[in-house]
Write a structure and sequence with these properties.
The complex is a heterodimer of chains A (331) and B (270). Chain A is built from 11 helices and 16 strands. By secondary structure, chain A is of the alpha/beta class. In chain A, strands 3-16-15-10-9-8-7-4 form an 8-stranded parallel β-sheet. Chain A has a 4-stranded antiparallel β-sheet with strand order 5-6-14-11, with no helix packed on it. In chain A, strands 1-2 form a two-stranded antiparallel sheet. The longest helix of chain A has 24 residues. The two termini of chain A are 26 Å apart. With 270 residues, chain B is an alpha/beta fold. Chain B is built from 7 helices and 15 strands. Chain B is globular. Classes of the chains: A alpha/beta (331), B alpha/beta (270). Chains A and B meet through helix 1, strand 5, helix 2 and helix 10 of A and strand 4 and strand 6 of B.
Chain lengths: 331, 270
């Protein structure tokens, strides 16, 4: 059987698939359910220090070609994060115990999804000010997530917070430095925006500031969709981040470029992954972990189980024994 | 897949009660009882609404004017344009000839009226228990009453119409001492306030009758991706795996009848 496990910043993942932040990550039980469906690791929705109200609906619309979202990073604040992460850890304990006992409640039908040793938690944090990044990072680190992901690249809160930190190398580096100094040994990955002129220089600045890894990429744009009969933008926020199938070539190119420039920095690749083949393409470009978001709209939460099977089948057909061997092998 | 709102023109407006308005519009997709659509009033808001009827060409939604969106919808006139996505979610299902107890609380009557209307066509018989505070809050009563093979049992807290007490108490009384007549039901369906549905779920479970329960949570996307409508501890999205769920699944939802989550994901007790 193909070995689908990967090591990311020293953390062992049973397989490379994780849910992208913002997708099915509001509660501990939701994250555990993503794990039960086969994901190798799970990512929380962006966590704020205090309550943050999102945009009014409609906040997410999709068709076969793309998705547009401007949910606006709603969150209940630190107390909620503590309660949900602790609940996740409790449910994960049960989940792993059941696996060992052989009577697990995994939804996945294939052996790859059922073969579980661990379910790492990636806590995604966000703030409007540098000091608040430091404060939320310090608090979240106390809950001992396996990895902290720093969201400095959300494209749909600009009217409230201004240009994302990820758009200026020096700002991105400052946030990284402030987070790194308060999280101890927990690896930090910084989620970057594709909506910049030179992402490699921003990646380099973030890594020089201490980032252990990079998450590439957040949604593109923002874009806009107008309802022609009412002539109203459909999203209440008027604009929203663009994701889905069309984002993949953009993500592949960026992952490829950054991996070439910084070959020792592990990458969580996200953007338009709808299948196991897409995930493999992203790994060949240079990603170690692969995030799935919009794919869930098309194939349901069952996509993790389906994509794992597709990956395992491809590896078998192509004589790949360990999926980690394909990382960064683009010629 | 099209999860963008389609623009639809309202073809009919019915005032059901002073508070409840039904809007009818032609729609290209068909909806089954228990399913919902996302209704958008541009510039106001978008929210999930149960489908109150589908005649094969048009869909009806019924709204009680209690919030910003429902008030805006209540003021709509024939010819006005609104946005609609869906239908989404699971359906109420039955077998031919089933003897069904339906328990509706307040406005939960709309999807159950639709279910009864369709089920009797399949040779089912329906005992329809409908609870509300007073007789003024029993919309659709006249329509349920005239359905064939359906018996309507109104129940009001103040006794102003039908049984004095809850719909569940009315149902339990109907089954007689020690639930002697419980075996007359093959299936229970319920839609209404959650604590009322919890009571239905408990009784059906105790009597071993199959039950379908409509579990609703705060929804944003409607297609299982945002994760706002998940439940503890199963973590499933009610927009996709629900809202209509088998009671067996509902029994696993620890928060059912206890709490739900708001738009920020924070717990709120019922």
């Amino acid at each position: 059987m193909t070995d689908l496990s990967v090591k990311f910043c020293g953390v062992q993942f049973d397989n490379p698939l994780v849910n992208a932040s913002g997708i099915l990550g509001i509660t501990g039980a939701s994250l555990a359910n993503v794990g039960r469906n086969g994901a190798g690791g799970v990512t929380t929705k962006s966590l704020w220090l205090s309550e943050h109200v999102g945009h009014k609906s409609p906040v997410i619309i999709a068709n076969d070609y793309y998705m547009l979202n401007a949910v606006g990073l709603p969150d209940g604040g630190l107390e909620k994060a503590q309660s949900e992460i602790n609940h996740f850890i409790e449910l994960r304990r049960e989940f792993l115990k059941d696996f060992k006992a052989g009577s697990n409640d995994a939804v996945g039908k294939n052996a790859q999804a059922r073969k579980r040793k661990y379910l790492p938690l990636i806590a995604n944090i966000v703030a409007g000010k540098v000091e608040d990044f430091e404060n939320i990072a310090r608090e979240i680190a106390c809950l001992e997530p396996d990895i902290i992901e720093v969201n400095i690249s959300c494209p749909n809160v600009e009217s409230e917070l201004g240009k994302p930190f990820a758009c200026v190398a020096a700002d991105a580096a400052t946030v990284t430095r402030h987070v790194k100094k308060v999280v101890g040994n927990i690896p930090v990955t910084v989620k970057l925006s594709p909506n910049v002129e030179d992402i490699v220089s921003i990646a380099r600045a973030v890594v020089d500031a201490g980032a252990d890894a990079l998450t590439l990429i957040n949604t593109a744009g923002p874009g806009m969709a107008i309802n022609i009969e009412t002539r109203m933008p459909i999203l209440t926020n008027r604009v929203g981040g663009l994701s889905g199938a069309a984002l993949k070539p953009l993500a592949i190119k960026i992952i490829h470029d950054v991996h070439r420039a910084l070959p020792n920095i592990p990458i969580i690749g996200t953007g338009g992954v709808l299948s196991g083949q897409d995930a493999l393409e992203m790994m060949i470009a240079g990603a170690t972990l692969v995030g799935i978001g919009t794919g869930i709209a098309l194939r349901g939460v069952e996509i993790f189980d389906l994509a794992l099977r597709e990956m395992a089948d491809w590896c078998e057909e192509n004589g790949v024994e360990k999926v980690s061997d394909v990382i960064g092998t683009v010629k | 897949m099209n999860l963008f709102p389609s623009s639809v023109r309202i073809t009919k407006v019915n005032k059901e009660t002073p508070l409840v308005t039904s809007l009818v519009f032609e729609y290209p997709e068909r909806a089954a009882p228990g399913q919902f659509v996302m209704v958008w009033v541009p510039g106001v808001d978008e929210k999930p609404m149960s489908v109150a009827f589908d005649d094969g060409k048009s869909i009806t939604v019924s709204v009680a004017a209690v919030g910003t969106l429902s008030k805006a919808l209540s003021e709509k006139k024939v010819g006005d344009v609104i946005g609609v996505r869906g239908p989404f979610g699971q359906k109420f299902t039955w077998k031919k000839g089933d003897r069904i107890a339906m328990l509706a609380g307040g406005y939960g009557v709309a999807p159950l009226y639709f279910a009864a209307h369709e089920a009797v066509k399949d040779g089912c018989t329906v005992d329809f228990f409908h609870g509300a505070r007073t007789h003024e809050y029993l919309p659709f009563a006249d329509r349920v009453e005239v359905l064939m093979n359906t018996t309507y049992y109104p129940a009001t807290d103040d006794g102003s119409r039908g049984f004095k007490g809850t719909s569940v108490a009315c149902w339990v009384e109907k089954m007689g001492d020690d639930y002697a007549e419980a075996q007359k039901y093959d299936l229970v369906m319920t839609c209404g306030p959650e604590r009322m549905m919890k009571a239905v779920s408990d009784v059906a479970f105790e009597l071993g009758i199959k039950a379908l329960v409509s579990v609703e949570r705060y929804m944003k996307c409607g297609f299982g991706i945002c994760g706002n409508c998940v439940v503890d501890d199963s973590g499933i999205t009610t927009c996709k795996k629900g809202t209509v769920m088998d009671n067996e699944e509902v029994r696993k939802i620890a928060e059912f009848g206890v709490y739900h989550r708001d738009s920020l994901g924070k717990k709120v007790n019922w």
